[in-house]
Amino acid sequence: MLPVENAICLAAVRERRNFIGDIIGLSAILTGVIGAAAVPWSRGYFG
What we know:
transmembrane, transmembrane helix, membrane
C-alpha cells in the first residue's frame, strides 16, 4: 500500500471508532435519562 492509502485507511478506522464511541456514549446518556425518569414515573408523579 502507498503511504497515502495507508493514511486514508487509518483515518477511516479512527473516524469509525469515534463514531461508535459517540453512539455508545449517547445511548448510555439516554439510558440514564430514561432510568432517572422511570423512578418518579413508577411512583405516579407524572399523572
